[in-house]
Each structure stands twice: as C-alpha cells, then as structure tokens.
Amino acid sequence: MPAEARVAGRALHPRDSALVRAARGRPTEHVPVWFMRQAGRSLPEYRAVRARIAMLDACMRPEVVTEITLQPVRRYGVDAAILFSDIVVPLRAAGVDVEIVAGVGPVIATPVRDLDSARAVPDLDADQLDFLAAAVGELVAELGPTPLIGFAGAPYTLASYLIEGGPSRDLARTKALMWGAPDVWSELMDALTRLTTTFLRAQAMAGASVIQLFDSWAGNLSAQDYRRFVLPYSTEVLEACADLGVPRIHFGLGTGEILPDLAAAGADVVGIDWRVPLDVASERIGATYAVQGNLDPTAVFAPWEVIEAKADDALSRGRRAAGHIFNLGHGVLPDTDPDVLARLVDHVHHWSPTR
Q1: Catalytic: 47?
Q2: d(CA 120, CA 96)
Q3: Which of 84, 146, 287, 339 is the most buried (most CB within 10 A)?
Q4: Residue 10 — pLDDT band, cuts 50, 70, 90?
C-alpha cells in the first residue's frame, strides 16, 4: 500500500480500508468485520428512533438513514457501515404500493399474477432516488475512511414478494408462476433487473465503496432451477455494476448447493451462511474469490468461550480464501446483546493464526 494511503496503520480513504482490501483479495492488517442487520434491531438507540416513524418512511428520510446507519459504527467499531434501508425500498420509490407490516413483513397491495400485472411494475428512475443520494453523500462525509456498503435485493427475492403478496415459507405461487408462465416470469424479472441495477448504481455513484446483492430466498431453489430462472438476471445486475470500480458481494441464505453459481454471477465476494464451513465453501467456488461470513447468528447467545471458539474456527477456515470479511451467517437477531457484538468485533480485530 502506498505510504501516503495510511497514517500509523490507519486507512485515509475507504478504498484503502481493511474491508475493501479483503474484498479484493489483498493483504490486511486484521480481518475486517461487519454484521448484516447491524443497523438496528438489537440497539436501544435504534428502537428509540424507530418508535417515531414507520420503517419505509425511515428508509426514505436522509437524516434518519444517516443516524441509524452510523449507530452500529459508533457502538461496535465495525469496519464498514451498511446503509439503513430495506430490500423493498426501490419498489416503494418506483411507485409500487408496498408496506412493511409489523410482525409480518413486506405486504404488496396488488400482487403480480399475470402478464398485465407484470407489465405494470414501474421502472425506477435515478431522479426518484434523490433521498438515497442525499443519505449516501452525508454518510460518506461522516464516515471518512470507513467504507459504506450499499445493497439491494436481487430480482428473484423481490419477485417472490411481488408474486406472493408478502412473506412466504414455501414460495408456492412464485415457483408455480416461474415454471408455468415463462412469459410472465421473464417480463417481471426483466423489470426487476432494471430496478435493482438502478438502485445499486445510484448508491455506488453517490459514494458507497462496496455493494451487496441479497438473494435471501435463492436457497429455496434447486441448482437447475436457479441456473435457468434466476442466475441470468443476477448476472445482469452484477455485470451492469462492474464499471463502477467497487467490490460486489453476493449473498443468499441456504445456498450451499449453488455456491459456485452465486460466484459465477459476477461477484468479487461470496457471502456464506453458517451451514457450510468457509474452507469448504472456498473449495466449491474457487480460491480466487473472497468470502464473507459465517458465524451462526444464534451463537452469540452462548457463553463467551463458545462464541470465541466458533469465531476462531471461522477465522481459521476463512484463511483458505483469497480474502475474508468476518460476519454472521445471516442477520443480527433482535434479542442479541450489543455488548457481545462489541466484544466479538474486538476479538476478530485482535485475532491472528498463531493465537
């Protein structure tokens, strides 16, 4: 690293940070760490802010987005902030009638069930994302050398909400439409690919240093169905962001059987949930990719010696990859003790293979 890029081991720009370097497979002085869903849920300061405002309204007010995004950075000392948002925010910004109902999740007023409703999904224009650009710009100024991660839900996961009308355990309507109405499926997925691309690009162009594509429900599919019905669209999104010069992370839950396909979609970093050890995951995707993960989110409820041992195991196994960003294997659970996460960050930062 150029001498002017660091002062006493401290990065002066997000591109020189441990997280961005790890994402690019470059050496780092410590393993970087951040947590999915770190911006809220378990933090009392988050709940205090959210008590006054609905979720999607909070996600579209720059001053609220800035405050909530910064809370876990202040609290934990993590190596990156993740933009406070939700995967259905681009749908709301485009004009889709969607609400997040407490205790339920995203609820779509008019589900997509036929060709006409698929064609009615509106495009998202950059000028509809002024709130996003404002929030990202303010955060970049506040964060300084700490990178900001932007994110979006992948087309398949967004499609599942639009088709089901809300959360679903088995995604029966989604699969039935995918298999039985290919014209509707391609129309919907094309629209969501454009929307997701616009949302991700807007974040990077406003200053986000990393982008992550969440395909939360991709693990619900067989490898054959994933390759045929989902992979082309995720590939198109990630390829459309290749010119932005920022690392791209691709994450899906329960995706052990399709990890090579997640990598092939065009990511620089593949997010791994807790079901597959990181060294095994690295063998499946190839050693040229960095990995992210993968402590079980429930492990943080165990005694500290258990947490420490499980974290050390993930850190040791992560060394097999080109780079490793430590994270949970999914999001922070609401009842997680923030002090435990702070202690975990400190442990990861001071870990070394010779400990």
Answers
A1: no
A2: 9
A3: 84
A4: low
10 is catalytic: no
Active-site choice (41, 61, 173, 320)? 41
- Please identify which of the residues 46, 75, 79, 86 carries the catalytic annotation: 86
Is the entire prediction scored with pTM above 0.90?
Answer: yes
Contacts of 293 (CB under 8 A, 6+ apart): 271, 272, 273, 274, 278, 281, 314, 318, 325, 326, 327, 328, 329
Helices (H) and strands (E) in the chain, counts: 16, 11
Is residue 75 flagged as an active site residue? no
Q: Which of 298, 297, 290 lies closest to 31, judged by CA?
A: 290
Let me know if 50 is a catalytic residue: yes
**Is the CA virtual torsion 190, 196, 198, 204 positive or negative?**
negative
- Known active-site residue 156: no
- Given the structure tokens 């992210």, which residue do they identify? 292
* Residue 355 pLDDT: 57
pLDDT in tens, 257-300: 999 999 999 999 999 999 999 999 999 999 999 999 999 999 99
Taking a C-beta distance cutoff of 8 angstroms, is the pair 194, 124 a contact? yes
Q: What 8-state DSSP symbol labels residue 332? A: P
Residue 123 CB neighbour total at 10 angstroms: 11
